[in-house]
Amino acid sequence: MSSNSTQNRADRLRGLLNPCEPAIAMSSHNALSAKLVEEAGFAAVWVSGFEISAANAVPDASILPMSVNLEVTRTMSAATNLPLIVDIDTGFGNAVNVAYSVPQFELAGATAVVLEDKVFPKDTSLRANGRHSLVPIQEFQGKISAAKSTSSLVIIARTEALIAGLGQQEALRRAEAYADAGADAILVHSKQKTPEEIVSFCKAWDGRVPLVIVPTNYPSLGFDEVAALSKVGLVICGNHGIRAAVGGMRSVFASIRHKRGLHSVEATIPSVEQIFALQGDKEMRLIEKNYVR
Asked: What CDD domains would the database entry show (predicted)?
């Protein structure tokens, strides 16, 4: 992707981070799911580290090499015109690693990266009894500065202070420091089953940059209620793509096996022709017609 195209997407995303009307990003783990996100009318694609890990049948714990996430980002960039918000976890190391990795994701077609303040290797946020140690504030500020100085991407700094049980004041202290270091937005995450903790944080936030939330654990908080807080510029649907895919495949596979035939599911799943359309078959046939001799 050209630098102008990347810059255009980044500028478009910055314009979407409107606390009065938050943008909604849907999770994705490959090019096909990214196309479905665009088809459904969402504002952006969340290139989810959790989903990519799950699609490779490994835990979300800094196991996959950066090359896997880069290739997924490249294929998504070719498949959709939506901004790509890429989950890069802890940035694959310290500030030196961040200074290398962030430009690689920019070249691959990312619009934004989300960088979190956990110690490498990270553990997925919502796992019970997970490892949630955080790096010192100054160290993470260095990572943010490294990301800002080496790319034109939207840099979203994610604090896991609430996940780690450190409380609202520590979460606010970190969020303020990360905004001071140049973050374009602050992602604050919570593992509480109700939205009170995140709503309290939003109300206490001074609004110097937009907030980003991921209401996986507190789905009762609707998008209109988020907008009413006037602090959140982006809501990420964090893992619904892979969960929907797993649920759909389990249901179809079980039906075929137990009813001993394909007849039981044919009317309930997309046709082969619909899959052809998602693959760009029409465009390929036109190329064949015009150029294949």
From this structure: ICL_PEPM
Q: Range(s) for CATH 3.20.20.60 in the chain?
A: 3-239
- How far apart (Å, rounded) are the C-alpha atoms in residues 91 and 238? 18
Residues of the chain with pLDDT > 70, as a percent, come to 98
Task: Classify domain 3-239 at the CATH superfamily level.
Answer: Phosphoenolpyruvate-binding domains (3.20.20.60)
Give residue-wise pLDDT tens across range 76-115. Answer: 999 999 999 999 999 999 999 999 999 999 999 999 999 9
The pLDDT score that the predictor gives to residue 4 is: 58
| Length of the chain counted residue by residue | 293
Q: How far is CA 145 from the centre of its chain?
A: 21
Question: Quick check: helix, strand or coil at residue 42?
Answer: coil
Q: Which tokens in the block code for residue 129?
A: 């009894």
With 0.70 as the threshold, say if the pTM is over it: yes
What phi and psi values does residue 133 have, to the nearest 5 degrees? Answer: -80, 140
Answer for the pair 48, 41: CB distance below 8 angstroms, yes or no.
no
Q: Are 139 and 179 in contact (CB under 8 A)?
A: no
Distance between CA 103 and CA 23 in Å, rounded? 25
Burial class (CB in 10 A: 0-12, 13-18, 19+), 135: middle
Please enumerate in sequence order all residues whose Cβ is within 8 A of that of 13, keeping only pairs 6 or more positions apart, or say none. Answer: 23, 44, 83, 85, 111, 112, 154
Q: Tokens 């970190």 appear where?
A: 174
Residue 167 burial (CB count, 10 A): 12
Looking at residue 59, the DSSP 8-state letter turns out to be -
